[in-house]
Amino acid sequence: MAAIQVNHLSKSYSGFQAVNDISFEVEAGTVFALLGRNGAGKTTTIELLTGFQKPDTGSVRVLGLDPVKDRAEVRGNVGIMLQEAGFFPDLTAGQTVEIWRDFTPAARAAGEALELAGLTAKAKTKVRQLSGGEKRRLDLALALLGRPDVLFLDEPTTGMDPEARRNIWEVVRDLAARGTTVLLTTHYLEEAQQLATNLAIMDKGEIVVEGGMAETLAARVGRVSFELPSMIHSGELPFPATVRGRLAIAQAADPDLAAQTLLGWASERGLRLRGLEVRTASLEDLFLELARNDEMSQNNAPARSDHGTQSDRPARRGGARA
Amino acid sequence: MELKATALPEGVAPVRDVLAVARLGGRLFWGDGRAVGGVAVLGVCLGAGLPLLIAASLRSRDVEVVLGIHLGMLAMVLTIVATTQTAVTLSTRREMLVLKRLRASGLRGRAIIGGELVNIVAQATLLSAVVSVILYTFTYLPPPELPLLFAACVVAVAGVLATIGAVFSIVTRRPDLNAPATIPFILATTVGAGGYGPFVTGLLPGWVRWTLDLLPTGAMVEIARLAYRGGELTTLTGPVLNLTVWALLGLVAVRFLFRWDPRR
Amino acid sequence: MSLAATYKLSALLFWRDKGMLPASVITPLGLAIGMPALIRNVQADGVTAAAQMFVGTLALILSGTAFLNITVALTMRRDQLLLKRLRTTRLTDRQILLGEVANTVTQTVALMIVSAVAVHLLAAVPLPRNPVLFAVFAVAGSAVLATLGVAWTAAIPRGELAAPMTLPFFFLAGLASGAMGSIKDLLPSWLRPFLAALPTSAVVDAVRASYGPGTLGSDLVAAALPTLILAVWAGVALLSIRRWFRWESRRS
Prior knowledge:
The complex is a heterotrimer of chains A (about 325), B (about 260) and C (about 250).
Chain A: E1 2-13, E2 16-27, E3 31-36, H1 42-49, E4 57-62, H2 71-76, E5 78-81, H3 93-103, H4 110-116, H5 132-144, E6 150-154, H6 162-177, E7 181-186, H7 189-195, E8 198-203, E9 206-212, H8 213-218, E10 222-227, E11 242-244, E12 247-252, H9 255-268, E13 277-279, H10 283-299, H11 308-311
Parallel strand pairs in A: 3-7, 3-8, 5-6, 6-7
Antiparallel strand pairs in A: 1-2, 1-4, 8-9, 10-12, 10-13, 11-12
Chain B: H1 15-30, H2 33-57, H3 63-95, H4 98-104, H5 109-138, H6 147-171, H7 175-193, H8 197-203, H9 206-213, H10 216-229, H11 237-257
Chain C: H1 2-15, H2 20-42, H3 46-79, H4 82-87, H5 93-123, H6 131-152, H7 167-177, H8 192-196, H9 199-211, H10 216-244
Helix pairs in contact in C: 1-5, 2-3, 2-5, 3-5, 3-6, 3-7, 3-9, 5-6, 6-9, 6-10, 7-9, 9-10
Membrane topology (chain B): Multi-pass membrane protein
Protein name (chain B): Transport permease protein
Pfam family, one (chain B): ABC2_membrane
């Protein structure tokens, strides 16, 4: 059963369309990453999913309930880590967790929550003395307090050092392994790739790419690059490639296969290929593609109809690379 | 307010910087229609409303009573707009790290505080002008004989009250505490200036009245009365000295005790 | 359970705030105790005037400790996104606000009782003849004023404006209930019914009856109009909260 269902959801603020007709589902027990640049609509989506805002049109179901109408019931099973929310600066981290336990039925022990978030050493420190990353961790401790079935994390590791970030990833993975559904937004691509099983990429309020992490990346072009042997002309290669200086770069849907073909071709001719590199697609490539397509569609605004069929899914083709 | 060595000789006020900060504060205030509405409407209601009502209900014309209430209410409005607002604004900006950011931009401490004060004084003066003009128009209260003296008095008192507000922001450093902390001061200035009517002032024992007269608003009442009635300016040495002492005390406290960082 | 939790939080935040105590406890107490004590000593008919004045200053406690306090605290917490954070928990909106109101009512009622005892000891003002009437209106009045304070936050754009936009009511309440002395008598007579219709004036009127001579029957009669006034204000406050209350600062 889907833990989160989003159907044709839209929301605008004073004329600005923050979220435009998006739909997706998150299966129970999976980690779903919502990606996008600043202003893409991620935070508004989270606010709609957590019932802080009412949708203009469309519907949201979390664990089968409406987060606005059935707020108290939904909240009992949901943990929320907002991107921005205040703390009482004069309470210590430990006191804050203690007070939150009063609001949370069947809460974890304060020590356990602090431990999970890696804050045990700071239990007696006042919130105003915590660093940005430590406040994020306190945020996480509060979100985890009620052993939620669904966890919303809005940019959970912003401001953390790499080690703290890895620890948080460990915690999230562990929770997911025990059946917690996690929806997270992030603009650290590595974070999404490390944690999520499914993803959606938002741009200007719309979902432009959606699917399983593995399939989505597999569908992207990878690339093969190598030093062009001195007497070889690029036209002689077994597939089209662009040459930059001495470096030949080829796009390929299956870069492993392309590399095999290339090696076969080279050994037939007794050539040695130096600096051979095979790269499968990464989220970063996907993002760069999106950004570039966006730029192109802006530059070519008058001639847009030429690209019309492609630009409604700007991520589909990576033809312009290299 | 620690002073950094800069190219400017000691003592020269960086006027351009002061005005830049004042403009920032002004833009934040005037750009927010709701804020202007809230403060202006309530300020005018208080400052003009009560004297208007009293002038309307007195059976016989009594300029003395109306003038007394007018000055008392003016003292209250000025204290709220200058002291309370300055205290709250400075500590809010400190808490939100705006003061720190301004300092990081290279502005000198005195330019930042000076700018905030200039902006607050401008608001307070404008409000006083509106209140006074309403009273001259709709009651038989005559405009002052010496309008310039009255204007100068309002500006000076607003400045002193705003400086005291800066001191309040040192004493109570959290923005949510500043407003309640200034309430006793507001009550004292209002009572001292006769805002509760002659009855309450008359009840107070002599030493209390004497103490209240030492407040800057006590000096304001004396100067303003002279401005309304006309008279010999040399009688004003006392009140002018009073304002000078308050201003100096305030500036010294700000100079040595003001903090730029939020409490940790 | 959850209401108790928000109550506890509000109380913790209020009392651990040493800086807040002079403002929200000592000022209103000082006025409510100091003014009557002063009057007792300077006027010939001291005790009567002091009693008269004391009942009037209860309006200052109500508007200072209940109304002003909750307005300032809630707008600040709204700006700091603390209310938003509280809403990420299981608490309902009603529980969050009710916790604040209940806590404010406790503080206000406590101050009213303390000052009644203090003026009894210091200014020889007698204790209320009908303590039940006193207590009922102390609680109901604080609750209505606190609820009005919650509603008023909707009109305040930013936290730093909470005080300047709330203080005038403090003054108005004191003026209307006679805590400022006889200045009220200088006002035109058509204004009196409006001043008497203020929630603080309603409480002061009922409490005055609890001090004055009378019987249970006359007390009930005296309480009828103030009850009606408080009920109307409570309705106004609740409707405005429903319609206009904001949990986050404006985005525009």
